């Protein structure tokens, strides 16, 4: 079976943001920030691997990343979660269902996006889900 890469994260793979719950829909726009700090979050499993590059200056945050599909019978995808400050409170938000990359063992690139609200605690993980008819289930790695 052909494998399709699904990036379930914050951003779209190549063109804009994907549809998400209303609470998280306006959290990110294309662009960067003047960062003082950075870190790279890594998440790997047999079916896929992901890298999220996180840049910040206080609560101003920007991210970009990649997801690599390493199997032929599952979807590999990245999830991210983060806290945003809105309405006087910190709240957890997340993003998913960003796009597909083919052929099997393809790589998805998450373009640089910046947060539209004060943001902190950005985390990511790679997950995999079996293709329909494969008999395989799904699994996610720990948050990184």
Question: What would you note in describing this structure?
Answer:
The chain has 144 residues and is mainly β. It has a domain at 45-140: Sandwich (Immunoglobulin-like), CATH 2.60.40. It is built from no helices and 11 strands. The protein has a 5-stranded antiparallel beta sheet, with no helix packed on it. Strands 7-6-10-11 form a 4-stranded antiparallel beta sheet, with no helix packed on it. The protein is elongated.
Which SSEs are present, and which pair or pack?
Layout (H helix, E strand, L loop, with lengths): L4 E3 L20 E3 L6 E9 L2 E10 L2 E10 L4 E13 L2 E7 L3 E3 L5 E9 L3 E12 L7 E3 L4
Antiparallel strand pairs: 1-8, 2-9, 3-4, 4-5, 5-9, 6-7, 6-10, 10-11
CATH class of the domain at 45-140: Mainly Beta
Report mean pLDDT, rounded to a whole number. Answer: 79
* Major sheet size, sense and barrel closure: 5 strands, antiparallel
CATH topology of the domain at 45-140: Immunoglobulin-like
Strand order of the largest sheet: 2-9-5-4-3
Count every helix, treating DSSP H or I runs of 4 or more residues as helices.
0
Shape: elongated
In the CATH hierarchy, what is the architecture of the domain at 45-140 at level 2? Sandwich
């Amino acid at each position: 079976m052909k494998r399709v890469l699904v990036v379930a994260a914050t951003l779209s793979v190549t063109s804009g943001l994907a549809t998400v719950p209303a609470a998280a829909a306006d959290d990110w726009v294309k662009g960067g920030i003047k960062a003082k700090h950075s870190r790279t979050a890594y998440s790997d499993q047999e079916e896929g691997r992901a890298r999220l590059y996180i840049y910040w200056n206080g609560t101003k945050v920007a991210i970009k990343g990649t997801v690599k599909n390493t199997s032929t019978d599952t979807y590999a995808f990245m999830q991210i979660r983060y806290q945003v400050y809105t309405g006087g409170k910190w709240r957890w938000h997340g993003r998913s269902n960003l796009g597909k990359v083919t052929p099997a063992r393809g790589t998805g690139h998450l373009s640089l996006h910046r947060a539209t609200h004060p943001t902190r605690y950005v985390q990511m993980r790679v997950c995999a889900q079996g293709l329909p008819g494969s008999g395989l289930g799904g699994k996610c790695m720990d948050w990184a």
